[in-house]
Amino acid sequence: MAATAMLQPERPIVHRLPQHKCIDAVRWLPQLSPFDRFAVLAAFDTDSGSSSIEIHSLKPNPLSLQPHSSFSSSSRVSSLRASQFLQKTVVAASTAAGSLHILFSDPADARFESELSVPEEEGLHSVPGSCVDLMDGGVECVTVGEDGRVNLVSIGNSNLSYRRLFDSGGLVSYTAAKWASPVEFATGGYGFSLQWWDQRKPGGPVSQFKANWDQKFCAGIVHSIDIHPSRKHTCLAGGSLGTVFAWDLRWQQQPIILSGAGAGAGAGNTGVQSISESEVWDVQYDRCIKSSATSTRILPAMICSEDGILAVIEQGEEPIELLAEPCAINSFDIDHHNPSDVICSLEWEAVAILTRQ
């Protein structure tokens, strides 16, 4: 019998909101007041080929998203993050062309008021495809790319400065990144590989994870990483074949597989039914689910996938399906102020907002 149990919640209330553009990524903005809520969307217009980063306000009765402020991006956004910085809201967006945009919004009305960028011609990344993560507090971000470059970008009031922390010369490709502390972060890439970096120890990653996967898993890609603030020794990853796994720095030999084609294989895995067999595009720890998990078990996590599944999974438990769509769910975000609220972007030009009971 499983050692932990998640309370089975009622089905969430779901609002599907058409947007008339492709929504590649979505994030809640830090809440400015109890009465005003905003989300930032990375949008792509297939008719004009134009990309934009847009702030939308959430309006009740009936629930809707209203355009509030917009910025035209130089290229299609590949990764989107939001945080607080010097009493302002800061949005970081990396693009498919390798450029980086840092946008500041006015705390009074959540409108974009200034922008800093590293254009693609400055060589932040040399090939299409990059990912960014913004440090809590917004003072620095890390960008990684399929070209094998790892960059640290410092954010000032009127300028950006960056330095290349590492360059594999294309021997290793990075597809995901996540801060763990002001000096530590994790990256992920091909072959379901993970790396742990510490700025106090330059020269490359201080620890690397590459399990003895079977042949089909060796071609897998890590698309998303999360690290819980109270368990910084554990890295949660989601990627190909519906695979969600954890890497515990204290026991580094084998992955702890939570879902996917490999569930049930390896030490500590329980053979629980997998919720998806396609690409897991986003993964986050779910702070809304109450769990009695011990320090040796993985906390509940939420995932979204290419086959249209939004679900909560926990080690040793049956998955909880929150949403099943006829199209891919490209990204999602759990509201830090109200963890029962989830926003996600649907491939069929729509945003869905879920409220859990």
Automatic annotation (TrEMBL):
<keyword id="KW-0853">WD repeat</keyword>
<keyword id="KW-0677">Repeat</keyword>
<keyword id="KW-0539">Nucleus</keyword>
<dbReference type="InterPro" id="IPR015943">
    <property type="entry name" value="WD40/YVTN_repeat-like_dom_sf"/>
</dbReference>
<protein>
    <recommendedName>
        <fullName>Nuclear pore complex protein NUP43</fullName>
    </recommendedName>
</protein>
<dbReference type="InterPro" id="IPR036322">
    <property type="entry name" value="WD40_repeat_dom_sf"/>
</dbReference>
